[in-house]
Structures are given as structure tokens and as C-alpha cells.
């Protein structure tokens, strides 16, 4: 069963989400509190393992930044969902860059929050309107959306290796390498930086610091 922690400085929000989680059977709410520091003290004092998913308010009242809060929770071993009024896209981007897997609006139905918990518990990013709004027009953040595997494949392929050699180097199937390159191209199109050819992929990899300017696409 998914273990869930709810961190929000509004008790009514915590109570509502806890009731929704219990009603849906999505998981067990193991902690509710108003700050990340309080949650980490609870972990230390009780010896409890990290929550699988933490639903975290974007802006808490203790002075900690959202990036600090997310980084601490991710380092501690939890997946993080940002629960936000969605009117501060820069802060949301900071949270996503720090490792949060998604954002969901506080105006969303509790059923949608529960569905988000299920998604994030599987280690998947939320792909919703709030996420799109946060990253829209922010090229620096969008560039970071390649997965670690996609970056590895792109780095080797753009540097000149044939796709078959890339697959062998990384110990993956050729079909997997090909699928990764396809996803990379799609992601670059989505942020307005299409890369239809291998030379274009090299340019994008250079722009994003994945390969040096001396690389040669063959």
C-alpha cells in the first residue's frame, strides 16, 4: 500500500486530502503536518521509513523555499507532488527542477489529487495543464526534460556513433535506443527546437551541453 504524507500549513486542506485518500483506498496517510522540517523530525523520532508520496504545499509559512523542501524530500526517498494555487509558475518550475514529479492545482477535485498520487507512486511524471503552464515558454526548464537514458543515447548518437553502436555501448536493445531518439525529437519539437536530422540533434546536444563543439556527427 502506498504510504502518503501531506504537508500543508492549512489544516483544513490536510484533513480534506486525508479523508479523500482514506475513502479512495489509494494509500495510507502516515503523516500530516505544516512543514517539511516537522515531517523530517517525525521520521527521525519514530524511525518510520519515508513516505512513498508527499503531497507538498508550494508555499509554506516557515520561510523554507520550495526548492529546498523538494530537494530534502527527494533526497530522503520520497516522490513529491506540488499542491499549488498555480499562480506562481516560477516557483513551480523551481520545484520541478528540484525533483518534484508534478503539480496539481488546489482547485482540482480531490479525486484528481488521488489520481495524481497513484501516478506519482508509480514513479511517473504528471502530464497535466498545471505542468504545461509552469514550463510554457521556459526553454531552460524544458531543456532539462530529457530523461537520464534519453540524454545518454543522445550524447553518444549526436557525437557520431551509429544507433546500433549506441545500443551496444549502453547495453540496451537497438529498438530501445531508437525509441529514445524518437522521444528526444518529439520533446525538442514540443519546446520549439525541432531536430529532424542527426546534425540538428548534434546542435541541440551542443546547446544543452551534452557534447562538446569538437564532436562530429557522421
UniProtKB/TrEMBL annotation:
Domain called Response regulatory: residue spans: 3-121
4-aspartylphosphate found at: 57
Entry keywords, A to Z: DNA-binding, Phosphoprotein
Pfam families per the UniProt record, alphabetical: GerE, Response_reg
InterPro entries linked to this entry: CheY-like_superfamily, NreC/VraR/RcsB-like_REC, Sig_transdc_resp-reg_C-effctor, Sig_transdc_resp-reg_receiver, Tscrpt_reg_LuxR_C, WalR-like, WH-like_DNA-bd_sf
Domain of life of the organism encoding this protein: Bacteria
Record's protein name: Response regulator
Organism: Microbacterium plantarum
Amino acid at each position: 500500500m502506498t504510504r502518503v504524507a501531506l504537508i500543508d500549513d492549512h489544516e483544513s486542506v490536510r484533513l480534506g486530502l486525508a479523508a479523500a485518500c482514506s475513502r479512495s483506498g489509494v494509500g495510507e496517510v502516515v503523516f500530516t503536518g505544516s512543514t517539511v522540517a516537522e515531517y523530517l523530525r517525525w521520521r527521525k523520532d519514530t524511525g518510520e521509513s519515508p513516505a512513498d508520496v508527499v503531497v507538498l504545499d508550494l508555499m509554506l509559512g516557515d520561510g523554507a523555499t520550495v526548492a529546498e523542501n523538494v530537494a530534502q524530500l527527494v533526497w530522503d526517498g520520497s516522490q513529491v507532488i506540488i499542491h499549488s494555487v498555480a499562480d506562481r509558475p516560477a516557483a513551480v518550475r523551481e520545484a520541478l527542477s528540484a525533483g518534484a514529479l508534478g503539480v496539481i492545482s488546489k482547485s482540482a477535485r480531490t479525486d484528481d489529487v488521488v489520481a495524481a498520487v497513484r501516478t506519482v507512486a508509480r514513479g511517473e511524471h504528471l502530464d497535466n495543464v498545471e505542468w504545461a503552464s509552469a514550463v510554457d515558454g521556459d526553454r531552460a526548464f524544458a531543456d532539462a526534460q530529457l530523461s537520464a537514458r534519453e540524454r545518454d543515447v543522445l550524447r553518444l548518437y549526436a557525437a557520431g556513433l551509429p544507433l546500433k553502436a549506441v545500443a551496444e555501448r549502453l547495453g540496451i536493445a537497438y529498438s530501445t535506443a531508437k525509441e529514445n531518439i524518437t522521444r528526444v525529437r518529439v520533446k525538442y519539437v514540443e519546446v520549439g527546437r525541432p531536430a529532424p536530422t542527426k546534425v540538428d540533434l548534434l546542435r541541440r546536444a551542443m546547446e544543452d551541453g551534452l557534447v562538446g563543439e569538437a564532436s562530429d556527427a557522421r
